[in-house]
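Q: Hi! First time doing this. I have a protein sequence and I read that you can turn it into a structure. Is that right? Here it is:
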Amino acid sequence: MSSFCTIYQALEYTADEDEIPHWSSDQNAWLGYGYYFWDSSIDRAHWWGKSRYKNNYMICKTEYDKNFHLFDMFDTNHSKEYTDTRIVLAKEFASRKKVSNTIYAQDVINALKSTSEFMNNFFAIRMLAMECAPVIHKIQFASNSPAYSDEDLPVQLCVWDKRFFKADVIVVFPDDSELVF
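A: Yes, that's right. Below is the predicted 3D structure, encoded as structure tokens:
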């Protein structure tokens, strides 16, 4: 079975090759600075383009190898490392009596990225993005339970090293585009 996966990025419509893929340096970039992609879902990329860029968007795609330098929150070892780092940060925040003791994902990721070992081993993070995108289609588990899953999970990747990409980044929407970057 192939370990290659397709990822999609919606960005404001432009033909400027310096912007493709788009690097997010927004202070609110929830997984830190990087290239944000939807994992395996062009539908999520279209939703983002329509809602964020008011239909003035394009979509590019590339591929990655899920076994290559990926810090994957679906991997129990990686999620444990994330949790252990969050616990250490919580103790540090409490000892400094910060105004807000809220620890955000980017705080933990930035702490992980502060070590050369982490940066040498990982070029991207993959995480489920609950409540950031609409449910496409609920998979009900039982009639007497509110538990469900979604047929198209909102999984995002934040890539900080282009060596993670295993194919050219190409524009796939609009369909008449043949731009390759």
